[in-house]
Amino acid sequence: MEEPTSRFDEDSTLRSRLEADPEPALRWAAVMAALALVQIGSLLGGLLSILDAAVVGVTAIFDVLFGLVGLTGASAAVVDVQSALSGAVTTARDAAEGLPTLLSRETIPNQGHLASADGPWVDTFLGLEPALAWAVRVLLIVGYSLFTFYWLFRGWLVFRAHYRQADWTPTDDMIDRLRDHRWGQFGIFVLALFLIMALFGPALGPTTVSQNIVSPYSHEVTYFNADAGAVETVAAGDANFNSKSKGAGDQNVGPMTYDNFNRFHPFGTLPNGRDLFTFMMGGARITLIVAGLAIGLSALIAGGLAMVSAFYGGNIDLTLLTTADGIVSVPRLLLLIMISAIFANHWLAGVLDGGFLLALIFAFTGWPFLWRAVRGPALQVAQEEWVDAAESFGQPPRTIMRKHMFPYITGYLLVYASMSTGGIIVGLAALSFLGNGLGITPPTPAWGRAVSLGQSYVSGPSWHISFIPGAMIVVLVTGLNALGDGIRDAIDPESAGGDDDEAAAGGGA
User: Fold this and answer.
1) Homologous superfamily of 281-504 in CATH?
2) Helix ranges restricted to H, 108-167
């Protein structure tokens, strides 16, 4: 393995390098600060959602461990701490999402009504039609987000060019190859779009989950009633009741159309009259949070166990192999259903509307797939000379694994983790599709539930109810597999154009 070459003095610190040439860093930081201020409320809301999930995850682990050893008092205390911390984070998140931002619904409103049969539109951005006002906001949010992602990558390029101690590292070649990998770039683009949905879902939708799905009878809709010839007000729930898509007669509000209450629906409506686009944006956040938690924990377990089994071998490796085979031998969907039923009344089932429990189940039933995938590279690196040299110099096993083994298997872990994430998303959708207490708890949006609601109308005018959520799931899973292919080819150029055995090993639900 070629060693990185240094262009700075070995004793220099990052701070000293920044002080010697501050201009590139200041230029990048100024633009980044401006981008953050533009959407500070939405960004903080997304970050606090991740923090809330992390708080719940850490406290849940301690709760389970204390419960296993019979420390019920400590377990109850952990639950109290979890409730307090999660409540504080939720309050902060709600406050952050309430901050006015440049690209918010309040700044570029699309919910308005006709003043008369011939117009004009009232309460919309610049008096535009709701469809045009909504499109302006969506285009600005997507453009802003894509540029922000690029600028974050630009920050790494600035660091590499001006402040990194090493003149070259193997990562440079991997990044350069990925920048020329069109299939991998497609995966990055798809993942970026769905991350935008998760982060800015409330602003992207023509309405909000609260107004249209969770508590529609607590909000009102103003519209022009053509029959009465006057502007009237109705509860959003009543407007939904009269905007159903059931494929019979005039009971259908298809994609890119208005209902009778002057509301624009980019994806049409559901059989209960709720806006499908808003439903999908709400589902994107919970789907990516659950999938991210599941694959993160699964990768942590698989990577750690792979290094342990490769370093020690013998009975430890055999025990892990037997355990992994035992878990894999049981159909994964059956395991998901069984464990979900067992923990149905546990407090974990209420966290993230059931999503956190599902993330734990996916993680603890999915790590054998990742472990099998990275066990080979871990065994290979464990036999390298630099590992033997580190051991001969008296370095402890934990240090050897962290410094000399983990960097080698990280790339392989990223490849198989990105491919396995698709299986988690499909499994989550399948559970929500089955219903009966499985999957994400209603009324929180879930993609699989939308597919289930529309399965009776696939061949009729209301085809959009099942087709659009199903197509989005397919696009996201395909994008994740494309990203995995791109990372694999960037790590090992000789694998480009090879067979798809690695993709098949991604592991589904």
Assistant:
1) MetI-like (1.10.3720.10)
2) 130-158
